[in-house]
Every structure is written in structure tokens, then in C-alpha cells.
Amino acid sequence: MHKTPISLASGYGNFVVPAAATRAATDLLGSGLLEVLPAAGSEALRTALVAPARPAGAGPLSADNVVITPGAKAALFALLKTVLRPGDEVLLPTPNWFGFAALVEQAGGTLRTLPLDPADDYALRPDQLRAALSDRTRVLLFSNPNNPSGRLYRRPELAGWLTVTRDFPDLFVLSDEIYNLINFEAEPTPSLLDFPDPHGRHLVVNGFSKSLALIGWGAGYLVAPAAVARACAEWQHATGCAVPAPTQTAALAVTRQAPAIAAELLAQLRPNRARLLDFLAAQAAIPPALPTATYYAYPDLRAYLRPDLPPAEAAAGLLNRLRQAGVDVVDGTGCGTPGFARISYAVSEADLTEALRRLGGVLGGANG
Ligand SMILES: Cc1ncc(COP(=O)(O)O)c(C=O)c1O
Predict the structure, then answer these.
(1) In this predicted model, what pLDDT tens digit does every residue of 208-232 receive, in sequence order?
(2) Which residue windows are transmembrane per the record (predicted)?
């Protein structure tokens, strides 16, 4: 066992907090007087979050559609808690973020997965989606860009899904867009908010801890039809309190500088991205895959699993071997795809280089 294990498993990057955020928060703290904000959040931040122009046909949005929450997880929970009724199902295409299962369960829903095919680049075709929806499905939940696969669902694909969901007027469509600015393609990540919402059922969650480097500040937000947003704010008021003002001030500062901050993060990430993708491409037993967004790769390591064991057990065995070699990655079993592993490259160059050397030692060896 190596003395110092290297973690490529964290969901948070090694990003420095943007100076404008620290300044805004410390200025406010220095003023000696903190305002207790309304449960829905500061009007200035909520307005700034819906300020970017949307395509023609997308509905108008205002601060009334936004609630600032203590992280994106809290935004997801508030929405699920608000819209789920007993017996309701949440349909989740997989692989997907391991955190969704507990959120759905805690909110009283039942998770149903819709496995997508890695060999088909995790495409979700409209007819496949239609076949998976039933009267019991209350929410279609997805992340775009996808955590863990790094797959970006582009505008025509989302439009195809929405031709199906509009035939289900009681269905909520919930898009987690927390990695939206960590996108290495020329086209920006499309938001669900860019599309018409014929039944007032589109819900979006986002945050500041991934694309805007506000790690550890505890801020996220939801955008929803005004009545749903109001219910979420009431729930937050009844069960907690508004996100503290210094955090919201910092969130406003990074929101105003979002394009520049995201561009810097992408520039920081690019060399490590190339390093990890080159390493994976050089492993003959790993099928080619090109994540175009997020700071993860999600290689298919099934060739390295013991064939005599059930997939989840074999995957745990492989991850254990990687851990013993001094590298922690996320087990794809929790994301719905045993035998895959989520590997973050939002770490220092030195850590990634050494981690890849250790990984190479295991993956270059024999199976079993
Ligand atoms: C897809 C996704 N949604 C939500 C979250 C939670 O974000 P936050 O730290 O803002 O609560 C994460 C964090 O890993 C995530 O990956």
C-alpha cells in the first residue's frame, strides 16, 4: 500500500476561489451587520441568474422563478419534496450521479432507472424515453452535462426528448445543470430553460461549486414555475433559513463574472484532461470514449473484472486493487454501471501524473 493515497474521486475540483467572491464576502462581513435574507434568496442574485438572454420561444423568467439554496443538493431535494406524491416514480437515465438515489428516497419517491448504452454514446432516443414513461412517472431526472460520463446532451437531443414529455402533462422534467460551464465543445451547454415549457413543468437545478469555483460556500439554486418556486421557498423557510448573505454576495460576484471564470477553469483543466484521456486511450482493454464536458472520464474497465464474480462484487474488487495501489476513484456501481469508474482530473498535475503511474501498474497487469 502506498503511504499517501491519491484521490481522483472527489466531485470538487482544485480550484482557487475567485478573488471577486472573496472580496465581496469579506467586504460584507467587514461592515459588521448581516442582513437575514428572504428564504428565496437575495433579489439581486435571483435576478442576475435569470438575466442571460434565452432563445425566442423560451418562456420569460424573473426572480420569482428562482430560489437560492444551500447547495445544488438542497435545490434538488426541495424540488423533489415539492412535486412528488406517495407512490410517484422518478425516471433516471443511467449512468448518473450517485447522489440522486438518496435524494429521491428521502423525498419519498421511487427511483426507476433507464439504462443507456455506452456503445451508443449514452444516446437517449425519443422512442426509448416514451416506452420508459408511465402514468406513475412524476419526474424525468437527468444531469446535463452528465455526471459521471461527461456526456453532453445537445440541443437537438433535448428537443427530441421534449417532443415526448409534452405528451405527459403531469410529468416534471428536472435538469441538473451544475456542470454546464465545464464544457470543452464550441457550442454552449443547452439549458432546459431555453425551451418552451407548455405545461409549466420544467425544473432546473444549478450551483456555484463546479463551474464557478465557489467550493465549500454552500450555495446552489433552482429555477421553476413561480408556484413551484414559491412552494420550495416556503419549505426552506419552514425547515431552515436563507443562505447567509456573505455566501449570496460571493455567488452574485461569480455570476457576474461567469464567462471569464469558466474560461479560466477550462484553461486550467485542459492539460490534465489531455493527460488522462491519452493515458486511457493507450490502454488496449479500455474501449475508446471521449467525455466532452465535466472534469471526469468514465472509462469502461469491465475487461479488468473477475468474470467469475457478480459485476458489482467484481467491480468492488477492482476498486480495492486500485486503492491498494494508492488511487481512489468512484465506483461506477453507485452510478448504475458496475465496471466503470469515475476519474476526476481536477487535481494537481503532480497528483494526476503519479496516480496514472499507479493506475498503469494495475491496469497494465493481468486480470483477476
Ligand atoms: C450532478 C450533481 N448535482 C448536485 C451536486 C451537489 O452539488 P452541491 O455541492 O452544490 O450541493 C453534485 C455534487 O457532486 C453533482 O455532481
Answers:
(1) 999 999 999 999 999 999 999 999 9
(2) none
